[in-house]
Amino acid sequence: MKKIGILFGKERSFPEAFVQRVNSKNIEGIMAEPVRIDKALQGQPSGYSVIIDRISQDVPFYRTWLKNAALTGTAVINNPFWWSADDKYFNNCLMTQIGVPVPKTAIIPSNEHPDDTSDSSFSNLAYPLDWEAIFNEVGFPAYMKPFAGGGWKHVYRLNDKEEFFEKHRETGQLVMLLQEEIVFEEYYRCYCIGGKYVRIMPYEPRNPHHLRYVADFSPTPEKLQEMTEIVLKINSYLGYDFNTVELALRNGVPYAIDFCNPAPDADIKSVGAENFEWVVETAANYAIEKAQANQPGTDNLTWGRYVKESAGRLI
Ligand SMILES: Nc1ncnc2c1ncn2[C@@H]1O[C@H](COP(=O)(O)OP(=O)(O)O)[C@@H](O)[C@H]1O
Ligand SMILES: [Mg+2]
Q1: What's the whole-number mean pLDDT along residues 168-175?
Q2: Residue ranges around ligand 1 (CB below 6 Å)
Q3: Do residues 163 and 220 both lie within one domain?
Q4: Which ligand does the CA of 147 lie closest to?
Q5: pTM
């Protein structure tokens, strides 16, 4: 029997529906359940062929537990090593190298010193930074947001440099991106599962939370194709099995705004019944596919083109 597990936090609608959907397909040799951990000992297999990880971003214990699971043959969705390595700044930088349009972006040292450091730890940083060059590049209004993280937390829209300095003082030890505002005509949130299944969902971030997915943008088939290709390209380089990409269209050009969401919101109350059905069905089918392809005791993770090409140069 190949077991598929799901590891999750407070969310309820997606994990339950996912487990039920996999089991309702009655595929011989496959079953799904919520992951259960009652001990964690090094080098021992997890017992799961596939685990969908929805929570290790908030639980470091789970992240390292998943790395051992991956080492001992579990296909962890998403790859816990890559998820530990990347961040929104690096991912933006990568996009500049592979031709995916992204807003102009700078990274800003944290306003407060990280714990256990002081002024003398920062001999390599110019003080003050060349703010004029940074502001000229990014322009105002600008967005400021954490370089790692999500959930629309600590996201600021800033009108000028005075506001930047004022708000930056509120961000403590967070490392923030300062980013060009994309003034968009249309906005899309795009699910990508298995690096191949894409669902482009019109999304209006300016609406209140419960109405964001009721935007009525209707892209042409050509635009849908272009956005699909961008979504696939991003995920093929990052190597995420389960991710959402936010695209803002300015003068028809899709800019990737937020594309590191390896535990994307899948709640029926926010995405709506039709999108929820797509996510549950597609995730169930993909997990079954991964379980059937699983070769016990080997690396069953997905690795992105960035890592594969870098590693390939060393061999
Ligand atoms: N550069 C930008 N231009 C225009 N809108 C932006 C930009 N960056 C963020 N936003 C807005 O802020 C929201 C939250 O920012 P996002 O990058 O998605 O962070 P999070 O990972 O917290 O969701 C986006 O959905 C979008 O509406
Ligand atoms: Mg977002």
Answers
A1: 98
A2: 103, 143, 145, 150-153, 155, 179-182, 205, 246, 248, 257-258
A3: no
A4: 1
A5: 0.97
Is 70 exceeded by the pLDDT of residue 263?
yes
Mean pLDDT of 199-203: 96
Task: Tell me which of 180, 208, 239 is where a domain ends.
Answer: 180
* The pLDDT value given to residue 120: 96
Residue 122 included in any domain = yes
CA distance 52 to 157: 34
| 91 located within any domain | no
Number of domains composing the chain:
3
- Whether 279 maps to a domain, the answer reads no
Domain containing 238 equals 186-271
What is the CATH number for 119? 3.30.1490
- The CA distance from 148 to 164, in Å, is 19
Residue 90 inside a domain? The answer is no
Give residue 264 CA to ligand 2 midpoint distance, Å: 9
Tokens of 40: 């964690």
| pLDDT the model gives residue 210 | 85
Distance (Å) from CA 91 to ligand 2 centroid = 14
Q: Which atom of ligand 1 is nearest to the CA of 180?
A: 1
Q: How far, in Å, from the CA of 149 to the mean position of ligand 1?
A: 12
- 79 and 43 fall within a common domain: yes
Q: Based on the domain organization, do 45 and 74 belong to the same domain?
A: yes
pLDDT of 43 higher than 70:
yes
What CATH number corresponds to the domain at position 72? 3.40.50
